[in-house]
Amino acid sequence: MKMNLVKDVMARVAGTVAVVLLGAGVFASPDVSAGIANTKHNLGSSTGPAERVNSFSGTGEICVFCHTPHGSDTSASVPLWNRVLSSPTIYTTYNSLGTSSLDGSTAPVGSVSLACLSCHDGTQAMNVMINQPGSGGYNAAGGTLAGTWTGDHQTDGKIADGLITLIGKDLRNDHPIGIQYAGGPKAGTVPAAPAAYSSTAFRDGDFKDTKSAVLNGQSVWWVDTSVGTAGSREKTDMQLYTRADVTSVNKDGDGNSMTLSGAQPYVECASCHDPHTENTTFLRIPNTGSAVCLACHTK
Ligand code: HEC
Ligand code: HEC
Ligand code: HEC
Ligand code: HEC
Fold first, then answer.
1. Count of CA atoms in the C-beta half-sphere (13 A) of 9
2. Which of 26, 29, 242, 270 could make a disulfide contact with 35, Cβ separation 3.0–4.6 Å?
3. Nearest protein CA to atom 37 of ligand 2, as residue
4. pLDDT for 186-203, tens place per residue?
């Protein structure tokens, strides 16, 4: 009895703390820039957080290292993208390890992952951009913004060798990306949103059901986390990225090849990460108790 009472009080205290923290978060970051300015993704010369190592003298802007209001790369599936993307063929993907447990089919490196890798593969300096700040700085092939880098987590503006942050071109030692969610569908196609895409429809039953909606005429899928409002798509949910550009060949229930086409959900870098958040290591939700992993995996 007494134990239960103590537990109950503890739970209530924890609840209060959570509410207070949530309130603080809302007031501390009223918009996206207040968040990202306090992170390692603030690469410019403006004031950044204490833990930031790399910064560049050439501009005090923040967004320009990734986005431009005009002249962006329209081949990128990331809004208003200001960086040159590598060819997908330079990467070695996780599926080439050949683990027998992998059910899903792997698409060429693309979607938002290719955008993250435009810095995190270490092949391109971070001050190379399509449209530089100010007037007259457009170069579709990427121009080098003048300035000086400081911080020993970079070499000539490329993320430095020997850091895990340098994901590199060999993706075999990273969580699979460009991978179908939950092994792909059992039958020929993923049910178009907003129909349910759940364990009766996908092949690997060890995954959480997705939510789905039609937004801007396109099917989108996500996995709800316990943070935020249940059922609505928020940045604290695990985002699945709709890839309509790939024809995947995966195995059906009988082990025969099955060709799939049409829009379907994939896991990409930004499924787990939000590049603007102040959460540790840019995770969509804190990974306490492996909450990130358990958002998708039923384990
Ligand atoms: C380090 C790279 C990077 C920087 C810097 C950056 N972004 Fe982004 N941004 C991204 C990526 C990658 C996406 C796509 C993410 C996704 O698909 O969820 C994105 C998506 C967005 C979106 C659409 C999706 C959403 O979350 O609302 C908006 C709006 C946005 N960024 C605004 C900004 C603004 C404003 C700034 C500067 C204050 C900024 N970003 C700085 C990488 C960046
Ligand atoms: C414009 C270049 C650029 C782009 C694009 C970019 N990043 Fe980064 N990212 C960096 C730099 C620089 C750091 C800090 C490296 C360091 O100091 O070790 C970093 C750090 C990180 C970290 C580690 C944070 C920490 O606390 O150690 C994560 C996670 C990360 N980025 C994820 C992403 C993801 C996911 C995307 C795409 C959605 C992305 N980044 C896009 C430049 C970039
Ligand atoms: C399935 C979820 C998931 C996916 C997909 C994912 N990450 Fe991560 N990533 C994580 C988690 C969780 C951490 C924190 C690990 C830790 O705390 O040690 C992390 C850490 C990182 C770090 C910081 C590493 C360090 O210790 O300094 C970087 C950089 C990073 N991720 C970039 C990426 C990029 C780029 C991609 C896509 C190529 C990607 N991530 C895809 C979950 C993911
Ligand atoms: C956004 C959803 C999502 C999140 C979050 C996620 N995973 Fe995964 N994970 C997947 C998918 C999809 C696969 C591929 C499953 C398949 O095809 O068999 C996978 C595969 C794996 C595999 C098996 C790879 C193989 O060779 O069979 C491991 C291990 C794994 N994830 C661990 C983790 C860990 C640890 C975390 C947390 C850091 C995590 N995952 C977070 C979706 C996710």
1. 5
2. 29
3. 116
4. 877 888 899 999 999 998
